[in-house]
Design goal:
By secondary structure, this protein is an all-beta fold. Helices cover 0% and strands 47% of the residues. The strands form 3 sheets. It has a 6-stranded mixed beta sheet, with no helix packed on it. The chain has a 3-stranded antiparallel beta sheet with strand order 2-1-6, with no helix packed on it.
Length: 110
Amino acid sequence: PGVVLAQGGNSFLYSGGLFDATNYMGYETMLITSGSATINSLKYIIPGQKITFIFNGGTQTFANGTYIKLSGAANFTATPLDTLTLVCIDPPSGGPLSTSTMYEVSRSVN
């Protein structure tokens, strides 16, 4: 399954807003995204998988919390051309989890 973003307990995927260039062999994903939302969790991520978000429009906020652990324990609000890379730190389970715990690896504010 693809990546599903969650907001306020509801899962959603922007229609045409995400381009998934997934390389499942290396467990790395690049998502180019636009729109405005607060992202509280990511679902169906494989333990150990890295995801890099490239923001090309709108302002999206990644909320630091239970499932997303960001640098400095502060929210990250992206603007166009910013990037954010997260990694799933859940223990190996043989497949994706319904809600994944993600840690920040890096960001670039452009």
